[in-house]
């Protein structure tokens, strides 16, 4: 398999996991009204998309230069939506 195929498979595996957690936390916790919850959900989805794009760009770049650090940095960037939820609910 070439590198592009491997990265597409990785993206297909991590995307549902990356979106599912923050979206479920948004729906299952909090006591906001439906209008505020919808705005929070939109912000969470935007944050998930941006952090996933940034995470994969950093992971691809690091994997080409230092494969050992790529996984650790990727996992740190993938935690960004949870940090946003924590900050938004305070």
List keywords for this structure.
90 residues; mainly alpha; 4 helices
Q: What order do the helices and strands come in, and which of them pair?
A:
Blueprint lengths: L2 H26 L5 H32 L1 H12 L1 H10 L1
Helix pairs in contact: 1-2, 2-3, 2-4
Please provide a written account of the structure.
The protein is 89% helix and 0% strand. The protein has four helices and no strands. The chain is elongated. The mean pLDDT is 79. It is an all-alpha fold and 90 residues long. α1 (3-28) runs antiparallel to α2 and α2 runs antiparallel to α3.
Biggest sheet descriptor: none
DSSP strand tally: 0
Helix content: over 70%
Count of helices? 4
The overall pLDDT average reads 79
Distance between the termini: 46 Å
Low-confidence stretches: none
Structural class: mainly alpha
The fraction of residues in strands falls at: under 5%
What is the element string, with H for helices and E for strands?
Answer: HHHH
What would the principal axes of the Cα set say about the shape? Answer: elongated
Radius of gyration: 15 Å
In brief:
The protein is 89% helix and 0% strand.
């Amino acid at each position: 398999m070439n590198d592009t195929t491997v990265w597409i498979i990785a993206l297909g595996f991590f995307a549902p996991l990356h979106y599912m957690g923050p979206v479920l936390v948004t729906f299952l916790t909090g006591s906001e009204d439906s209008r505020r919850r919808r705005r929070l959900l939109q912000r969470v989805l935007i944050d998930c998309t941006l952090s996933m794009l940034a995470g994969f760009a950093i992971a691809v770049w690091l994997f080409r230069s230092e494969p050992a650090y790529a996984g650790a940095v990727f996992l740190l960037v993938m935690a960004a939506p949870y940090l946003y939820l924590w900050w938004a609910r305070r």
